[in-house]
Amino acid sequence: MDVIAAVAAGGGGPSAIGVVRVSGPGCFSVCARVFRAGNGKAFEELEPRKMVLGEMLDREGRVLDRGLAVRFPGPRSYTGEDSAEFHCHGSPVVLRELLAALFAAGAVSGTPARQAGPGEFTKRAFLNGRLDLTQAEAVVDLIDAETAAAARNAAAQLDGGLRRRLEPVQEALLDITSRFYAVVDYPDEDIEDVRPEEAAAALREADRSLTALLDGCRRGQVLKRGVRTAIVGLPNAGKSSLLNALAGYDRAIVTDVPGTTRDTVEESVLCGGVLLRLIDTAGLRETEDQVERLGVERSRRAMETADLILLVEDGAVEPDAIDEDIAEELDLQEAVVLTGKPWIYIASKRDLSGILKTAVRSLDGKAGPAASVSLSAVTGEGMEELEQAVAALFPAGDPAEAGSLLTDQRQEEAAGRAREAVRRARAALEEGMTPDAVLTDAEEALEAIGELTGRTAREEIVSRIFSRFCVGK
């Protein structure tokens, strides 16, 4: 592999500290031309994994900055190969010039250095066996984490939490397949055949383990992506005020004029420890205004694609009056129920209401709200109850699960294929089919698990995963 280099921290604007990362066989000779250690030692002689103060040099050998350098001889490095880092002041100019000096030094030293691509350092760590694919994906999940829970799960997955959950399944399937092949390939040897009851027990346990992983997939995806949440209601119900209260600032325009919100307004907030991707929608009503009508159509689409719906009604209006309005206009509660999505009923404007309305209309036996909350976006009354309702709908789960939650569609799809193959193998065994039928499905399950961890992942899958990374990681 050739030498790669990139700005790993800073570069987007002035900052206190910037980091330039270098990796690849022969990179130490390149680094030696751009760093002069304060202790007088050559770069190749610097103590591994220990910061050393010195001077960074530009392409002409002039002092560019004073900072720290650290050397990581392979294979005990992030990438598994010789690598180094330079920690200097975070001026974009300094970082750019230091990177250019490294490229120039590579050309002179006979070890060409080039700009690293997105995720190339982590990709090399994967290719060199320092990380499996689930750990590599955890790196970008950790960088992108927007909640403490998401960061903890990514950190535990980076530590191999998901791999450890899969290893017993792999070992059981490998034992079944290897013993079968041993019996077939070496018939004269005294090799004990696979007993059906042992194989059945191993396949049952594999099924149980994969099912447990898939059951936690929803929590993993909530941690990673958040919950797409549509705030819906009639005009002037208090939707935008609720959005602003959850966001902590005036994200949406609020007036007493019905129909102020004509387009969807989006904001990400933490509510009950859950990341909500809020979508404030236009009031749902029949209108002749072409612009407002487009907003209403977008509101309906937001309801259809949401994971959670917050139905807001004006709690300061008498229940009979608001029910009559809904019946005359859109029968909004019925429309929310028909989406099949979980929903929370919110009676707004609690500070203006003497009745603290929380009741919903009879829905003829259809699914009611997960919770009913009366609140005031102005005073904050009832906001804690809303947080509790959201947290109950999307529980954090057992802390012991951290690191073993499937967090994206690729992982879920591969685990799903593995489970289906295991179940086919179980069925074949129970039906008394020939061992080769069981073997075929067991091998397919192993292939799917290998794809999940990266052991058998195709190149296009690997490339797609690392394309999500930033340059320098």
- Computed over alpha carbons, the radius of gyration is 29 Å
Per the CATH scheme, the topology name of the largest domain is Rossmann fold
Can you give the helix content as a percent range? 40-55%
What order do the strands of the largest sheet run in, or round the barrel if closed? Answer: 3-4-5-6-2-1-7
**Corresponding CATH architecture of the largest domain:** 3-Layer(aba) Sandwich
Contiguous uncertain segments of 5+ residues: 253-263, 326-330
Q: Could you spell the SSE succession in H and E letters?
A: EEHEEEEHEHHHHHHEHEEHEHHEEHHHH
Shape: flat
**Tally of DSSP helical segments:** 16
Overall average pLDDT: 79
The main pleated sheet reads as:
7 strands, mixed
**How many DSSP E strands?**
13
Overall CATH class of the largest domain: Alpha Beta
Number of domains: 3
Write the layout of secondary structure elements.
Blueprint (H helix, E strand, L loop, with lengths): L2 E7 L5 E9 L3 H6 L2 E3 L14 E6 L5 E10 L10 E8 L1 H18 L3 E3 L4 H8 L5 H12 L3 H11 L2 H25 L10 H20 L1 H9 L1 E7 L5 H9 L17 E7 L2 E7 L9 H16 L2 E7 L4 H11 L2 H7 L4 E6 L22 E4 L8 H11 L15 H22 L4 H19 L5 H8 L7
Parallel strand pairs: 1-7, 8-10, 8-11, 11-12, 12-13
Antiparallel strand pairs: 1-2, 2-6, 3-4, 4-5, 5-6, 9-10
